[in-house]
Amino acid sequence: MPLKKQNKVNYLARIIAAMKNWIKLKKIADAGLPSLDEMFARDTHRAERMRYQACGIYADFSKQRISPDVTQALLGLVQEKKISEKRASLFAGEPINFTENRAVLHPALRGSSKDKTINKLVSDMQMRTRNFAESIMKQGKYTSVVHIGIGGSDLGPRLLADGFAACGKPELALRFANNVDAASINDALLDLDPATTLVVIVSKTFSTQETRMNGEAARDWLGQYANANMIAITANRDGAKNFGVSSSQIFDFWDWVGGRFSLWSAVGLSLQLTYGPDIFDALLSGAASMDAHFQNTSLENNLPIMLALTDIWNTNFLNYKSRAVVPYARRLRKLPNFLQQLEMESNGKGVMRNGQPAPDTCPIVWGDEGTNAQHAFFQQLHQGTSSTPIDFIAVLTDHENRPDHHLALLSNCFAQSEALMHGKSEADVRADLLNENMSAGIIDKLAPHKTFPGNRPSTTILLERLDAQTLGALIALYEHKVFVQSVIWDINAFDQWGVELGKEMAGTILSELQGKTNNPHDTSTSALIALARNHKAS
User: Fold this and answer.
1) Annotated catalytic residue: which of 375, 449, 516, 535?
2) Residue 450 is a catalytic residue
3) Cβ atoms of 397 and 466 closer than 8 Å
4) Which residues have CB under 8 Å from 347's CB, separation 6+?
5) What's the CATH number where 160 sits?
6) Which of 45, 102, 283, 360 has the least CB density, counted as fewest CB within 10 Å?
7) Do residues 93 and 113 touch, judged by C-beta distance below 8 A?
C-alpha cells in the first residue's frame, strides 16, 4: 500500500478508535437511563461510591444521572484523549496555547513547576510583593486600597476578598473599580482621602480601555499623591512608567499567565496589602495541594477529572445547555461570576484545534448565592420545562459564630438537592390535598400545579472550612476541570479571540461618537450612533 494511503488509513483508524467510548456513551444516553430514584434503589452504596475527597473538599456526584457503565465509558474517553500526556505538557510549560504560541504556567505561580528559571522569576516576584505589603503595613499611614482592573484582573481578587473575610480581618479597606461606567470609579473613590489611599492598577497590556480610563480618573483624583500612591501590575513596564507609575511600584506578570488564571500572581497584591502576605501564601499552598492531587491521583479517584466528566456527560450526551452554580455561603457569592469567565472564556469555543467544528462545548454558567436564589430562579429549576444541572457548594464550619443561621443554611442546601432529585408525584400531591379535606374538583385543578417532575441532577461540593487554603484548592479544582474538558473537546482553552472583536469595533464607534470619524455600519448600528450623537448635542 502506498505510504500516503497507509497514513490516511492509520489516521482514520485512530479517529474511529478515539470515538469508541464517545459512541458507547451516545448509545447509553439514547437508550434511556433509569431515574435517579431507581439508581439509588438498585445500588445501596451509591452515595458512598460516588463521593470523592481531596484537599479539604468533599464532592457528592450520586445525584447526577450517571450509572456505573457511564462512568467507565467516560473514564475510557479520558484515556483515549491521553489526558496524562496533555496534563504533563501543561505542567512542563510546553506552548499548549498554540494560537498564541504560549506556555500556560499559572500552576507555576503556586510552586507546581520543575522549571528552575520560571521558579526563580516567580519566587523573586513573590518576595517583592511580600516585602512591599509588609512595608506598607508597617508604615501605618494608609487606610484604603482601590483595585482597578476588569475581567480576570477583577473577578479573582473580588472572590478572594470575600473569601478571606471568613477567617481574616482586613487591615485596610478594599474597594474595586472594574467598569468604564464612571459610576464604578466614582463609587470606589467616594469619601476616601487621596493621601491615605493606594491605587492598584492591574492591566496585562496597560492598554485595556476600561482599566486605562479608570486609572486616569484615579491618577487625577490622587493629584500630588499620584507618584507615591499608584501601583501597577502589568506585563508592560514601559506603559506603566509612561503612565506615571514609579519603577519601584511596578510588579510584573508574564505572558504565560492568562488573565482569568492570574489571581495567583502579583495581581493578588491588593489582597496582600489588605489581609497580609501570610494568608495569600496559604491560598497558594491550597492550590498547590490540588495541583498535586490532579497530577498524582488515579483517574477514577481524581476530583478534577470526575467534575469535568460529569459536565461532559451532561453537555454532550444529555443535552443540558447550562449549569447553575449556587454557593450556600455569602463569602462565595462571587464564585458564579468568577466561574463564568473561567469556564466560558476558556471553553466557549466553536472549533477544534484542527480548525474543524467542535461538538457542543461549554454550557452557559450562571447562578447566585443561596438561600436568596431559592426565592428567585429555583421555581424554574424545579418545575420549568427545561432542566439545569446544579453545583451546590456549602461550608461545613460555621465561621460567623451563629450556629442557628448556619444549620438553617445547610438544611436549605441539602433539601434543595433532595427535592430536585425526588420531585413530588401527582399521586402524592393528590393524597396531601385529600388529607386537607379538599373536594375532588379542587384537587383535579390543583394537582398538576403542585406536581414536581424530579430526576433533576446536581453535584454537592462541601468545604471543611472556608479558609485561604481550601479556597485555593477549590479554585484550582475548577481550573483543572476546565483543562480536562478542553482536552476531551480538543479545543484551546487558553486563548480568547472572541473578546477582541467587540473591543476593536468599540474603538471605531467611540471615534464616531466623539465626532472624529464616520464609518459605514448596518442601519441599526448607524441609527444608534446617530441617536447618541444627537442626544449629546441637544
Assistant:
1) 375
2) no
3) yes
4) 361, 362, 482, 485, 486, 489, 491, 493
5) 3.40.50.10490
6) 45
7) yes
Query: How far apart are alpha carbons 247 and 353 in whole angstroms?
Result: 40
**How many Å apart are CA 197 and CA 251, to the nearest integer?**
18
- Domain assignment of residue 159, yes or no: yes
Give the position of cell 414536581.
Answer: 452
Q: Return d(Cα 61, Cα 36) in angstroms, integer.
A: 11
Is 516 one of the catalytic residues?
A: no
The residues near 310 (Cβ < 8 Å, ≥ 6 apart) are 61, 64, 66, 389, 459
Chain segment 493-506, per-residue pLDDT in tens? 999 998 888 888 88
Is the pLDDT assigned to residue 421 strictly greater than 60?
A: yes
Catalytic residue chosen out of the listed positions 210, 345, 369, 479: 345
Domain count, the chain: 2
Which candidate in 27, 445, 503, 536 is catalytic? 503
Residue 65: inside a domain: no
Is 378 among the domain residues?
no
* Cβ atoms of residues 395 and 327 within 8 Å: no
Structural domain span for residue 215 = 106-286
Buried b (16+ CB within 10 A) or exposed e, 94-121: eebbeebebbbbbbbbbbbbeeeebeeb
Residue 194: inside a domain: yes
- Digit-coded pLDDT (tens) for 227-280: 999 999 999 999 999 999 999 999 998 889 999 999 999 999 999 999 999 999
Last residue in a domain, options 225, 260, 286: 286
DSSP symbol at 305: H
**8 labelled catalytic:** no
Examine the fold and report which residue of 237, 266, 286 is the final residue of a domain before the chain moves on.
Answer: 286
